[in-house]
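Methods — Computational structure assignment.
A single polypeptide chain was analysed. Its primary sequence is given first, followed by the predicted tertiary structure written as structure tokens.
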Amino acid sequence: MKRRLFSTVLALTALSAAADSPARPYMPQTPASSIGMLMKISVVDRSSGAELPIYLYRGEYWVAGRPGARYAIRAFNAVGERVMAVMSVDGVNIVTGETAGIGQNGYVFSGLERSDITGWRKSDSQIAAFQFASAGNSYASRTGRPDDVGVIGVAMFRERRSEPPPPQIAPYSRRDEYGNDREQRESSSMGDARAKSRSADSAVAAEAPAGSMARQQAPSPSLGTAHGRRENSYVGKTTFERAQSTPDDVVRIRYDSRENLIVAGVIPPAPPPRWTRPSGPSPFPGSDPGYVPDPPRRY
């Protein structure tokens, strides 16, 4: 399946939770598989094909990565219209390699379309796979941008809908003081003003500064995303005009190793394994602790 990605001129077609009360310990909720309103975003382990659980902890979403594992960002357009998704990993635009900003290009999804985005875009036909690695071996760190390692971002934009032309006003006749007919036509200045306004809006959207959306500073996690092996992934071009310069929805998912998330309290520790009685004679048929009791009296 081909995917489309947006460009300012063309688009490539291809392929809060409240703070915890000190008196109440935090109880993690059942993890979700995807989040988002316009689009449902999830993270997929490519070796198993399973969506990784997304944990909500202190108002932030988290997934646990496994060092060396390849992953994909799965995006499902939940609305019946085209949506553009500007995607970043570790603060880097996954299409252009620029330090990510909401005014940059991204992928365009048709209504109800789903696609797995599997890596850094290298050309119209190839990507470098997303792969969990140590923070120091991440693509962002190796290109001198380590501050935002450990976060996946998706900014979503609705498409501007073309407006119908203003209705034509039928001419009418009016007699002047000399009794002559005179044609009067409705001025089109209002329509011209609307057209100029739309042009100005488009110019503002195209010139929106890359850093116009502030990013929260995150502590440097132990996991990042490496520039993995090359894989085939084909793209083409399409045009897309945003309905507005600011995103209609933004998804932010942080990630780290499972061990670190358990230590941080994001993931509850697994309960100790319960011993199960084997079939047949058991060397340990009872579970009550204690010492050897006296045998019953003989009768």
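Note: Residues 6-28, 172-220 have pLDDT under 50 and may be disordered.
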